[in-house]
Design brief:
The structure holds two protein chains of two kinds. Chain A is α/β, with parallel strands linked by helices. Chain A has three domains: about 210 residues, FAD/NAD(P)-binding domain (3-Layer(bba) Sandwich), CATH 3.50.50; about 120 residues, FAD/NAD(P)-binding domain (3-Layer(bba) Sandwich), CATH 3.50.50; about 120 residues, FAD/NAD-linked reductase, C-terminal dimerisation domain (Enolase-like, domain 1), CATH 3.30.390.30. Chain A is built from 19 helices and 23 strands. In chain A, strand 12 and strand 13 form a beta hairpin. Chain A is globular and about 70 Å long. By secondary structure, chain B is an alpha+beta fold. Helix content of chain B is about 35%, strand content about 20%. In chain B, the strands form four sheets. Chain B has a six-stranded mixed β-sheet with strand order 9-16-15-14-10-13, with helices on one face. The chains are: A alpha/beta, B alpha+beta. At the A-B interface, helix 7, helix 12, strand 10, strand 12 and strand 13 of A face helix 1 and helix 7 of B. Chain B: This is Dihydrolipoamide acetyltransferase component of pyruvate dehydrogenase complex. Chain B: Keywords: Acyltransferase, Lipoyl, Pyruvate, Transferase, Transit peptide.
């Protein structure tokens, strides 16, 4: 999810010798990392093995495109008769990347416009570097847990860390994934147009770097995928050193003794995991009455018992941080707290640093939306369920789509990618509506939290409205052999389902590798698999996946299993 | 780092229209209700003081007080101090008895405006002593930001009394409002709850004076010692008799006084600083000669040594610096030489401020004044807590060399031994007699390295061996 930032930065984009760089075996081996961190699609690395054989073709074809680009200058306003591209995507984040790969697979001539670095927020300032920091914090926490080590019979003396080394790991990972992403698009023949992209008119995109002449390109269809930037509430002064956003925190330039984290959602929670492992003490400031407001309440409670209470963390809930002043003149960072309900000043905190994790705001400024009569709502581009952009009069703008954080439907990297694929499906003639209910989300704390579908209150509300009964099944990691072998028995999986027909409404997992475990449930929801059928699927023993196996088996469904999914018995 | 929309992002945006409110508005009302019956608060007498011990009440309940009259003697971690009343009235109720300890900013007595209100105040004292923590929070915020701890502390300490003064009182933490608001790190709070330590009684030694985990642990450990000590003392002798009795009663466990407690905490804290030592032998014949010449004008050896040290420090500012946070050098703008002085039942370090600038005669007079005040426990906070470099001299006992512990918050301390007549081989191969003294500097190696100290000592030796600059 990404942002075409207006400042231009030399990117590594089309350099003629680039294809050669990618031939080292190390490069090919590192490819699968793509999948793990960003939910990139399989094509991303399937092609990496082909780069050598097709590199010359790629370079040739991309040169061919650029000739056409310079030739095309249409007039603003009327749609052009013929197009430079079938599809132009503005923003080369994970959403744009996913859409581009799928478009190429569907035979579309595709270009992607990027004003900053390829990879967007996820790869450069989000999921990817944060996973590097979390990988470090997880290990460090484990090594420092004397009790845990002793229980395993291990002896570790004083585990420590080197801040710069940790920061470098995060930075190296981001650049590795970034180059993988760039190469996968290059290899497929996606043109990467460097510059800040704007909608110039119907089916027209203008792009250019500051100080260079603008180029105008035309496309049959356009996807806006400009992503988001950290949201900073009014009254908070971000100086990038003591008052920071996730953008700064991921560089890990400083590990403060005491850091306040404003917002206890995914971002705040993950950073609390990192900072406490590195020795900081953390104070959460949450506007709602409970911590982790986005999570299923039961999971939230358990997570608080494991992730907050035993750690060096305290919190203030039901308060706004109405004013945050960075440290200066020998004074600490000063945070003024205001009661969320009474609006009365409540408290003042003095800390060494503050991380603003109050969510993300769409990055849609300067996108030229007024050229096509589209008005954003709090910055978000209004779209229908097919990601088609809606203009100020409530009409669909033909051939214009918006995916990812910029439309605000579900601000997750892999959701953006899924939306992009859905759009490509539509423009290539197959109607497709993405079900957001089957998109999983994960928080990579130690242990992890993951979820798909509805929370329990949401499910109960839906049940009441639609007249069905919501049942709950739970299994514990304490009963799982693999989890116990790892001495990580803390955890819970929770299933919300309809007992009448076996439909899965939601699954929530808190425990070891929860983020990897959720997909069995999300796939079942996406494919409409019912519990009475999936409970017959076999899981390897002993694995963590048996937690879900148990979960499905413990559900009481009245409907009988469908007639055997395996039509012919196969002799082994 | 994707984020679903339904989390804290939304509520935060509703706060956009809010003005940050200063905090003085709503709260002052609660305060004014109590105007007729005023509370006398435990004043903050030093920047490190978070609690004070009531040495004695100079007035009894029911006594009439006039403005400016001394009411109570408070023992802080550094000195005993009279606390005067800021208002006229009657001492209605004493809430903390003699020998009792109260957190800075908590009420220790009630002052009634008229005799009629005494009874009312007494009733109140019963209830409010239980909720004194709350009272603390309901006080109005000081309008101005409380400036750097030490300097402000100084200006208030002597006249400290009831409410008004405390509001401006010395800051334990730049924004802690005179110690009334407790600034403690999340883990410190957690530990305090676990170990049942009252944070109000803990001295913060973390960044900007905040209470951190080790302070709570230290307080918990001290609490155990104090409690057991107290119990055994009750068996051995009545508490009142202890200070009167000369010498030490063997077989007893005597709890630390506040000052001794502060020393203990500082000593334990010093263990977290990586120190090293460099020694030097300095010939003092010239210095001794100078001393003899100007002794009659009231110049003391301590002043001479402080002066020489200060002059050497200007040339080596790093030795005068300190490391506050483990990440930086704090280069001090003035050279303030603290000199350790043993006083009855403790140790204090009166400070010769700007020792590099003040002439030797003034410096000597100042020193005498400080020592007199220290013995009388009358030192003002700025007179003992603003040192940037410490001198400790045991030469008068004939000690020829020793090793000093670095006081936390400073960069270096110099242990000075006795100047002794020594047989010395001179460069030309002759044997001669010279007065020599050994000095040994302990320094924080995070900021001061071996070469820094060596260069500093070399400069110091040059100054002492050719002391004409000491008298200007």
């Amino acid at each position: 999810m990404h942002s075409t930032l207006s400042f231009s930065q030399a990117t590594t984009v089309p350099r003629s010798n680039y294809a050669f760089d990618s031939h080292s075996p190390a490069f090919a081996l590192s490819k699968p990392i793509n999948l793990r961190f960003c939910g990139l699609r399989r094509e991303a690395f399937g092609f990496s093995y082909l780069t050598q054989s097709c590199s010359s073709r790629v370079r040739f074809s991309s040169r061919g495109h650029s000739k056409k680009i310079s030739a095309s200058t249409g007039t603003n306003g009327t749609p052009p008769k013929s197009f430079d591209y079938d599809l132009i995507i503005i923003g080369a984040g994970v959403g744009g990347h996913g859409a581009a790969l799928h478009a190429v697979e569907k035979g579309l001539k595709t270009a992607i416009v990027e004003g900053d670095v390829v990879g967007g927020t996820c790869v450069n300032r989000g999921c990817v570097p944060s996973k590097a920091l979390l990988a470090v914090s997880g290990r460090l926490r484990e090594l420092q847990s004397e009790h845990h080590m002793k229980a395993l019979g291990l002896q570790v003396s004083a585990a420590g860390y080197d801040r710069q080394g940790v920061a470098d790991h995060a930075n190296n990972l981001a650049s590795k994934i970034r180059s993988n992403l760039t190469n996968s698009m290059k290899a497929l023949g996606v043109d990467i147009l460097t510059g800040f992209g704007t909608i110039w008119g119907p089916q027209k995109v203008k792009y250019g770097k500051v100080g260079f002449p603008d180029n105008i390109v035309t496309a049959k269809d356009i996807i806006i995928a400009t992503g988001s930037i950290p949201f900073v509430p009014k009254g908070i002064e971000v100086d990038g050193k003591t008052v920071i956003t996730s953008d700064h925190a991921l560089k890990l330039e400083y590990v403060p003794d005491w850091i306040a984290i404003v917002g206890s959602g995914y971002i705040g929670l993950e950073f609390s995991d990192v900072y406490t492992a590195l020795g900081s003490e953390v104070t959460f400031i949450e506007a709602l009455d409970q911590l982790m407001p986005g999570f299923d309440p039961e999971i939230g409670k358990l997570a608080q018992r494991v992730l907050i209470n035993p750690r060096k963390i305290d919190y203030h809930t039901g308060v706004f941080a109405t004013k945050i002043t960075p440290a200066r003149d020998g004074k600490p960072v000063i945070i003024e707290l205001t009661d969320a309900k009474t609006k009365e000043p409540k408290d003042t905190l003095e800390v060494d640093a503050a991380l603003i994790a109050t969510g993300r705001a769409p990055f849609t400024n300067g996108l030229g939306l007024d050229n096509i009569n589209v008005v954003t709502q709090r910055g978000f581009v209004p779209v229908d369920e097919r990601m088609r952009v809606i203009d100020a009069n409530g009409n669909l703008v033909p051939h214009l789509y918006c995916i990812g954080d910029a439309n605000g439907k579900m601000m997750l990297a892999h959701a953006a990618s899924a939306q992009g694929i859905s759009v490509v499906e539509q423009v290539t003639g197959r109607d497709h509506v993405l079900s957001h209910l089957s998109i999983p989300a994960a928080c990579f704390t130690h242990p992890e939290i993951s979820m798909v579908g509805l929370t329990e209150p949401q499910a109960r509300e839906k049940g009441e409205k639609e007249g069905f009964e919501v049942s709950v099944a739970k299994t514990s990691f304490k009963a799982n052999t693999k989890a116990l072998a790892e001495n990580e028995g803390e955890g819970l999986a929770k299933l919300l389902y309809r007992s009448d027909n076996g439909e899965i409404l939601g699954v929530h997992i808190f425990g070891l590798h929860a983020a990897d475990l959720i997909h069995e449930a999300s796939n079942a929801i996406a494919l409409g698999t019912r519990i009475q059928d999936i409970k017959f699927a076999v899981h390897a023993h002993p694995t963590l996946s048996e937690v879900l196996d148990e979960l499905f088996k413990s559900a009481k469904v009245k409907a009988p299993a469908s007639s055997s999914p395996v039509s012919e018995p196969v002799a082994v | 780092m994707a984020h679903v929309l339904q989390t804290s992002f939304l509520p935060s945006s509703t706060s956009l229209g809010l003005n940050p409110i200063s905090g003085s508005k709503g709260k002052s009302q609660a305060f004014q209700v109590k105007a007729k019956i005023r509370e006398i608060f435990m004043p903050a007498l030093s920047s490190t003081m978070t609690e004070g011990k009531i040495v004695s009440w100079m007035k009894s309940e029911g006594d009439k007080l006039s403005k400016g009259e001394s009411v109570v003697v408070v023992e802080s971690d550094k000195a005993d101090m009279d606390v005067e009343s800021f208002h006229e009235g009657f001492l209605a109720a004493i809430m903390v008895e003699e020998g009792g300890v109260a957190a800075v900013g908590s009420a220790i007595a009630l002052l009634a405006e008229t005799e009629d209100e005494i009874a009312e105040a007494k009733a109140k004292s019963q209830s409010s002593s239980a909720s004194s923590a709350q009272v603390v929070e309901e006080k109005p915020k000081p309008k101005e930001e409380v400036a750097q701890a030490a300097s402000v502390a100084a200006s208030v300490a002597s006249t400290v009394s009831s409410t008004k003064t405390v509001a401006v009182g010395s800051a334990v933490h730049p924004a802690s409002e005179g110690g009334r608001r407790i600034v403690a790190s999340p883990y410190a709070k957690k530990l305090a709850k676990e170990l049942k330590v009252d944070l109000g009684t803990v001295v913060g030694t973390g960044p900007m004076g905040r209470i951190v985990a080790k302070d709570v642990e230290a307080a918990a450990a001290a609490g155990v010692v104090a409690a057991s000590g107290h119990a055994s003392q009750q068996h051995a002798s009545p508490a009142k008799a202890a200070p009167v009795a000369p010498g030490i009663e063997l077989g007893t466990v005597v709890p630390f006084t506040t000052m001794q407690g502060a020393v203990s905490r500082n000593m334990v804290e010093s263990l977290s600083v990586p120190t090293f030592r460099v020694g030097y032998t300095i010939t003092t014949n010239a210095l001794d000669g100078l001393y003899k010449k100007i002794k009659s004008k009231g110049v003391t050896m301590t002043a001479l040594l402080a002066k020489a040290t200060a002059l050497a420090l200007i040339q080596h500012p790093v030795v005068n610096s300190s490391c506050r946070d483990g990440n930086s050098f704090t280069y001090n703008s003035s050279v303030n030489i603290a000199v350790a002085v043993a006083i009855d039942g403790g140790l204090i370090t009166p400070v010769l401020q700007d020792a590099d600038k003040v002439d030797i005669y003034t410096l000597s007079r100042k020193w005498k004044e400080l020592v007199d005040k220290a013995r009388a426990k009358q030192l003002q906070p700025h007179e003992y807590n603003t040192g940037t470099f410490t001198l400790s001299n045991l030469g008068m006992f004939g000690v020829d060399r020793f090793d000093a512990i670095l006081p936390p918050g400073t960069g270096a301390i110099m242990a000075v031994g006795a100047s002794q007549l020594t047989v010395v081989a001179s460069k030309d191969g002759h044997i001669g007699m010279k007065n020599q003294m050994q000095v040994n500097v302990t320094a924080d190696h995070r900021i001061i390295y071996g070469a820094d100290l060596a260069a500093f000592l070399q400069t110091l030796a040059k100054i002492i061996e050719d002391p004409k600059d000491l008298t200007f």
